[in-house]
UniProtKB/TrEMBL annotation:
UniProt subcellular location: Nucleus
Organism: Sesamum radiatum
Protein name: Transcription factor
Keywords for this protein: DNA-binding, Nucleus, Repeat, Transcription, Transcription regulation
Listed Low complexity bias regions: 8-27
Main localization (coarse): nucleus
Gene3D superfamilies xref list: Homeodomain-like
Domain annotation HTH myb-type: ranges: 32-87
SMART domains: SANT
Amino acid sequence: MDFFNRCSSGSSSSSDTSSESSSLSGSKNVHKSERIKGPWSAEEDKILTRLVERYGARNWSLISKYIKGRSGKSCRLRWCNQLSPNVEHRPFSAAEDETILAA
């Protein structure tokens, strides 16, 4: 699925660096005492959206440097699961319900 590949951190390419990978799996750029846990503010959402428009939905370690207290992984998850225009915010259709129940 194309959307998954754009938001996935699992793809390995020659452009991946160890610091980029470590910021996706943890928060090397954000010290534990500086990390923000919990809900994102509307302002953080706006900043994240602007940064994704500017840098793309793959440069999470770079993007996280502009959002104080948020790791690259946190930024990626927020974008891919809530803010991306590809996320459908609607109830499941009857056909989707049937597919889920059949699994």
